[in-house]
Amino acid sequence: MRRYRCRGCSHVWRQDTTKDAGPRAKLPRAAVRWALVGLVVAHLPVARVAEALAVSWHTANDAVLTEGQRVLIDDPARFDAVVVIGVDEHVWRHTRRGDRCVTVIIDLTPIRDGIGPARLLDMVAGRSKQVFKTWLAARTKAWRDTVEVVAMDGFTGFKTATVEELPGATAVMDPFHVVRLAGDALDRCRRRVQQDLHRHRGRAGDPLYRARRTLHTGTDLLTDKQRIRLEALFAVDEHAAVEATWGIY
């Protein structure tokens, strides 16, 4: 930092660095911005960011959290034009203490309109009806009135919170969980037929057990070998129920 001294009055002042770094900051603004972009866009871990900036992990993490709060979370325009949202839980803590899950809310409007990828809106500690209901209640009434669709999994707490706080919105199940339910039904049917035919659970030599993963593969992704395996599987009359359920899946 440059220092200047007046030859007339001997007054000393320093170079103004407020535009380069905040008060008592350990990293300049450009470095913090680079770290945030690297973490969010390039998916770099905090350890790599800290190594590149030659600082400790905690210094880099604190800087990224502070900048992310200022640029992303505190941005008043991030809720504009949101009409379709998605809500789901995510297990982020694998310890006995504290909330294991966070409730994730994303903006699905760009997906519905075909103009871009989904956008993260917020993450709230906990997974319950009250957590999602409190988050919705914290938004303005004008914003809640514009929401048209809420996509979610089969958790009734999310649906109840949606009905209470967004009476004008339609609650739907997202495609991932719809396919997951269909896949679970296919597995249950396969196990039931396996038990009825062989009186035991699936073993390595059982055709139904060998094809358990092939049954979950999309038809456009099947190899020639997998197609032959399924054709042989469905050629057995006793496997008709599995074939019907697979067709629905």
From TrEMBL:
It comes from the Bacteria. Residues 85-246 form the Transposase IS204/IS1001/IS1096/IS1165 DDE domain. PANTHER family: TRANSPOSASE FOR INSERTION SEQUENCE ELEMENT IS1557 (PTHR33498:SF1). This is Transposase IS204/IS1001/IS1096/IS1165 DDE domain-containing protein. It comes from Luteimicrobium album.
